[in-house]
Amino acid sequence: MNRRGFLGLASALALWTLPAAADPVQKPFRIYMALWRGWEDAAQGFKDYFTNQNIPVELIIRDAGQDRSKLPEFVAEAKQLGVDLVFTWGTTVTVDMLGTYDKVDPAKHITDIPAVFAIVSQPDGAKVVPDLSSSRRNIAGTSYLVPMETQVNLLQSYRPVRRLGMVYNPLEKNSLVAADELRALGRRDGFELVVAPVDVVDGKPVVASIAPKVAGLKQAGVDFLYIPPDTFLNVNRDILTGAALAEKIPSFAAAENPVLFSKAMFGGVYRYYTVGQLTAYKAEQILVHRKAPADLPIEPPKRLSIIINMPVVRALEIYPPMGLLGLAEVVDTPEEPRQ
Amino acid sequence: MRLDSSRSLLIRLLMLAVLVLVPPMGLASFMALDRFEQGMNPELDRKAAAVGRDLVVQVERAVAYGIPVEKLVGVDEFFAQVLSGNPEIRYLGITGTDGTILFLRGALGGQLADHYREQAGSLSDKDGATLQIGDFVDLALPVKGRSGLVGSVHVGFDQGYISSRLFSIFYDIAVVLGASLIVAFEILLFVVVFNVSGPMKLVAEVIGQGRKGDFSHMPGIRADDEVGHFARVFNASMRKVDSAYRGLMAYIDEVRTGHFDRGAAERAGDIADRVKFLFRFDASGAPGFLREKLSSDVRLPLFLFVFAEEISRSFLPLFAQSLPRRMTLLTPELMIALPIAVFMAGIALGSLWGGAVTERLGSRRVFQIGLVPAVLGCLMSGLSQSVIELSLWRGITGLGYALVTVACQGYISKATNDGNRATGLGSYVGAVLSAALCGTAIGGVMADRIGFAPSFFVSAGLVVVSGLLLGYLLEKVPTSPDLPPAAEGDPKGLSRIFLNWRFTVLVLFAAIPAKIALTGYFFFLVPLVLWGTEHTLPEIARIMVLYPLVMLVVSYYATRFADQWGWRVGQIAVGGILGGVGILLAALFDGTWPLMLGIVFLGAAHGMSASPQLALIPDICWVECQHYGRTQVLALLRTLERIGSVVGPLLAAVFWPLWGAEGAIVAIGSVVLGMAAVFAMLAGRYGDGPHLESEEGAQ
Q1: B486 touching A, CB under 8 A?
Q2: Which residues on chain A are in Cβ contact (under 8 Å) with B68?
Q3: Across the strands, what pairs with B151?
Q4: Strands A204-205 and A200-201, how do they pair?
Q5: How far apart are CA A334 and CA B12, in angstroms?
Q6: Predicted local confidence at residue B566, as pLDDT
Q7: Which of these, B612, B620, B618, lies nearest to B501 by C-alpha position?
Q8: What domains can you pick out in chain B, each with its CATH number?
Q9: DSSP conformational letter for B222
Q10: CA–CA separation, B18 vs B31, rounded Å?
Q11: What's the domain count of chain A?
């Protein structure tokens, strides 16, 4: 009997369920992973959790490559394979495959198979769940965005801001929600939000308009740039953060990629890897401990990561306060020449 | 039992206690302080070095990331945090390689700049350097970057810190020593009265009776010591006299019945009558035991009980503040005030009920009944997890407190007669105040050392000890069933007393504001404000001790003054105004001194006016006292003034969020002063003496 069997036995005893789980030749759980932009940290964290916990899983990995039209095929495939659980990555994949709580169509969406979602910016705002305490249906998940108030407090603790700039893709709902929240907090804290949506041509955001938008914000006198958790901007993060650095605007990112792998100055995020692990923990609750997905709250990881991108800090010469520096993870390139 | 009769013995004993306790404790403390001072210096050095090293690591990390040392951001806040966590560190700074001050917090740059410049050259390669600058000791640690030295971190501490810490420890020891002396005195008093002077008085009483020809009683003393031996010998003599009397009477009877000579028989009868007339012997065949209730019997248990209850005096609002407040219906300030207010309400209810119950069950039973909620309340207060829970248990403690104190008062008033009742009650007040003194002082030190909750457990333990002691005492001194309550008039229609404007004015504008000042200002605001201005628990307790101390002294003289001059109304009026002024004084000036002055004023004010308030009642309510009974009228006053006790903390808690702490003090002071002024104005028209026409006319 392998360890999985022991676990199953233990949980079966604990829950007083039938001894099905104690079957010594337990098949691995089959999990259908529907991704949006390839294998990244959240997916890795999800996978590693099962490895670390010795839970045998068979992962069926599908990447939509940011093409929405592939998602109905994923739904059909997952149903046909009869998998044990579906993992959805990002707001678009989640909404298209699982539906919103007020519009679920068993023909178009996955309903009978339990599902967990990750990297959905606004699980309630996007109507994936009615509220964060419970999905009230066959799905569970995690949130990954730091509450906007925490983000703004963090930003202000680096350097008080009077005029906050934000470039965003007007086609993405997350960014609109973020802009509204920032405006409200600005009224409280006494800063002004200046928004610059990127140009949209033929229903597609135009990459070439990013740098001019940043320049426009500089002209408008913004003293900080807020980078929302926006897929389009994530893809084009080098252009955006490069433009901000060229214009000498310090930037704060709500997601980790612009800070970790590009030139945003700092960010307050929950690491994708940790979010992936937490999502896997939810999956474990459903598959191993037989909990109903509706009983699992949608929650973010406990630990906030403050990431400071030191080369950008040095280039801008806007140094972090000692207190913040003491708490932060610092991204630094050893090759970078030091003064 | 008059204290005065054994005063010289007690004073000698007290002096002995002082001689026995103080020198060894003083010597031990002195040696401990010396050791402490010796150990403190290197300890401070180590601490400064540890803090400095930690700062250097953080600064070097920033410098390693390419932040020039002079361009560090947020250093001031960063230093502020370290300074607030380490009160012994006076200042923190960073200097450049040439000794210029880049950042400094906690001291003025001008004091240090020259020293730093001088030091700059010599620092380069050393691990650190210590410099004496005035009262400061400055530790400089080098900060190294990639290219060598970039500056240094300075940690400064104050030489005065050690002496101020020593002073505070010395104070703690003095407080504990003072309190132990009072406890020792109380125990000595008890031992002397219970074992020596009490029995002697009983013997004297019996001898006195014997001188008048009354041989019907023997002193009922049971003890195994010399006193007991004496009593047994004495009683044997008494029995001898008794049996001699009975032998004589039997002989006379024999003569009377058996003698044939009628004249002789009559003569013998005359002699018998004469003997019976001159001497009285017990009719039952043997002299009965004389036992007496002494008001001092309950003094030690009462002292211990009040001591236990007063332990939480200085920290109750702070404890409430530290507990989670689950209910959001009330403001945080009101939640903090709640335990005090509910405690006071518990006392009010308990006294109302306790008075009636004591008449029926007797003081001993009520004392025992009261111990249950008192112990439970203290224990559960310590275990409370929320303010609501704490308030509930405080209320129950208040109930127990009231029952026990009412029972003690009842016992004392039963054990005394009109002649020595004042002394008996004086002994009661003395025990309560000296217990308040010790309890408050020790409570602060204790809470500081062992925490809030364990201090409540100590309270509970002391209450148990007090209960056991009283149980033992009352068993040893079997009490005759309490006399049926003296027919003291009919309390029905007592509410008509409010038609007597003098009484109503006394309650509304003298008794109630005094309690508002006590609970709102002293019990609630003072600990919170002192805590907010960063006083330690023992310091708060030391300051709060001033109240019972001043009150003890002032009330001693005020009572004599009032008895001599009969200026009771004036004392109440002046006392009220003094209290109000004292509280306002505290808010007019910054710092701790005015607050202490306010407490001294309040102690003086209450010491001056508390007993005249009660003494005034027979004067201004002469008719009602006749009609309803004086006890009833006095009890009504005590109950009504407790409205002020309950309202006080709540009122202060309402003022606090409106105008801040100082504003709340001003507001409470104004309320108290305003009401006292009204009393002073109206009291001018009280007239004097009991012969008040309006009441006479009402009859």
Answers
A1: no
A2: 339
A3: B96, B143
A4: antiparallel
A5: 83
A6: 66
A7: B620
A8: 17-164 (3.30.450.30), 213-290 (no CATH), 295-485 (1.20.1250.20), 489-699 (1.20.1250.20)
A9: -
A10: 19
A11: 2
